């Protein structure tokens, strides 16, 4: 579990990026920080591995303040995936993945073996092992970045807008891959994005941030969609523009789903069933036992 306790970050120029921030991130789930530029989401992410230290307050992992852990040791124990992959251009794919294990004392042979296994895990053909990053597509480079982030089998994986620089189709594939990996590996993932659709797709817990790291709303995607906390959240998620107000419209070729502005948003793959949760509870037979 990761916990932020009354965290504040003020930079030397007087800019306060985060002010009095409190949040609990449950273990083995994906929490997404989402917001526009300047809301403090990347600052918060980097506090977890001490790339940024808070001015006041504390960040704790399983009850221990990270301020008491050597920064280098801490970073080597936490996976980190960034935008544009951050790969070393002069090192081959397999060597990029093996970087952190080698730094922690793993033998070269074992580190290479682990790197090849991780290529399988992230869906990257082993034939790419001896290529350089420049010889890969953007999506392939990001898969290498994810593999490198998992190389020491960390409990925590930090992901700072990792899919922001690839095209929409590749981005969707990478999102699906992350969902699959999380289902298999069960890491504590902290993900940063400015894209609310990405946040809703990936997050078990979504934290919508305003400027200064103020939490506008946190909850599951369904909780936020069903009941936006205020107009800011409603506008941010698109409810105020009809983007989330979907309806079924009949066409000559069959029913489709359209948004509030009449644009096609999808197709129906089965019958629509609307369940009133409150009514269902009332109608559930009660036991006298």
Please describe what this structure looks like.
The chain has about 290 residues and is α/β, with parallel strands linked by helices. It folds into two domains: about 1-240, P-loop containing nucleotide triphosphate hydrolases (Rossmann fold, 3-Layer(aba) Sandwich), CATH 3.40.50; about 245-285, no CATH class. The protein has eleven helices and 13 strands. Helix 5 crosses helix 6. The protein is globular and about 65 Å long. The relative contact order is 0.14. Mean pLDDT is about 90; it is low at about 285-289.
Give the class-level CATH name of the largest domain: Alpha Beta
* Assembly state (oligomeric): single chain
Q: What is the SS-derived class?
A: alpha/beta
- Average pLDDT level: 89
How would a textbook summarize the main sheet?
6 strands, mixed
Overall domain count: 2
- Do you know the CATH architecture of the largest domain? 3-Layer(aba) Sandwich
Shape descriptor reads globular
Radius of gyration: 22 Å
Strand adjacency order, main sheet: 6-7-8-3-9-10
CATH topology of the largest domain: Rossmann fold
Tell me the name of the CATH homologous superfamily of the largest domain: P-loop containing nucleotide triphosphate hydrolases
Summarize the helix and strand pattern as letters: EEEHEEHEHHHHEHEHEEHHEEEH
Keywords:
alpha/beta, Rossmann fold, 11 helices, globular, four-stranded antiparallel β-sheet, six-stranded mixed β-sheet, 289 residues
In short:
By secondary structure, the protein is α/β, with parallel strands linked by helices.
């Amino acid at each position: 579990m990761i916990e932020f306790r009354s965290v504040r970050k003020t930079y030397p120029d007087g800019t306060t990026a985060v002010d009095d921030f409190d949040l609990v991130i449950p273990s083995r789930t994906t929490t997404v920080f989402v917001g526009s530029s300047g809301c403090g989401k990347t600052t918060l992410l980097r506090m977890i591995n001490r790339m940024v230290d808070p001015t006041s307050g504390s960040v704790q992992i399983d009850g221990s303040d990270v301020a008491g852990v050597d920064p280098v040791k801490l970073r080597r124990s936490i996976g980190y995936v960034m935008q544009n992959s951050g790969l070393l251009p002069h090192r081959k794919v397999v060597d990029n993945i093996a970087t952190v294990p080698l730094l922690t004392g793993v033998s070269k042979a074992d580190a290479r073996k682990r790197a090849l296994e991780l290529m399988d895990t992230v869906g990257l053909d082993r034939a790419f092992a001896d290529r350089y990053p420049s010889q890969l597509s953007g999506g392939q480079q990001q898969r290498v970045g994810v593999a490198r982030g998992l190389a020491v089998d960390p409990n925590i994986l930090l992901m700072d807008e990792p899919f922001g620089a690839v095209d929409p189709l590749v981005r969707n594939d990478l999102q699906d891959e992350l969902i699959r990996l999380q289902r298999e590996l069960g890491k504590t993932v902290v993900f940063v994005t400015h894209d609310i659709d990405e946040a809703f797709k990936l997050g078990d817990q979504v934290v919508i941030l305003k400027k200064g790291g103020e939490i506008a709303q946190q909850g599951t995607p369904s909780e936020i969609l069903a009941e936006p906390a205020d107009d800011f959240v409603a506008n941010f998620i698109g409810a105020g523009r009809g983007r989330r107000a979907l309806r079924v419209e009949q066409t000559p070729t069959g029913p489709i789903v359209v948004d509030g502005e009449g644009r096609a948003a999808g197709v129906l793959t089965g019958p629509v069933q609307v369940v009133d949760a409150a009514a269902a509870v009332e109608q559930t037979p009660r036991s006298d036992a």
